[in-house]
């Protein structure tokens, strides 16, 4: 006899138990924490993009030659 595909009891894991406040749509602290975490992540991504764009627009010099030291430093070395 073939297996029945209509009986899906127990398939798909457990559901989270909702508090009364959650059932009524009041929300929980977990939702607020996720919102705060998402906001922090978006702010960090924005800052990283700004830094990357600034570096792409103004590439820093690779290295300074040794002869470009300030005059006071040249005198101190002698």
From TrEMBL:
It comes from Streptomyces sindenensis. It comes from the Bacteria. Residues 1-78 are annotated as: Disordered. Pfam families: DUF6243. This is DUF6243 family protein. Residues 54-71 have a biased composition (Low complexity). The lineage of its organism: Bacteria, Bacillati, Actinomycetota, Actinomycetes, Kitasatosporales. Residues 31-53 have a biased composition (Basic and acidic residues).
């Amino acid at each position: 006899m073939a297996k029945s595909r209509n009986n899906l009891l127990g398939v798909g894991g457990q559901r989270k138990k909702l508090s009364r406040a959650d059932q009524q749509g009041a929300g929980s602290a977990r939702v607020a924490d996720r919102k705060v975490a998402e906001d922090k992540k978006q702010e960090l991504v924005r800052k990283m993009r700004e830094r990357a764009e600034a570096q792409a627009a103004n590439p820093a010099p690779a290295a300074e030659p040794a002869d470009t030291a300030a005059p006071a430093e040249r005198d101190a070395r002698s």
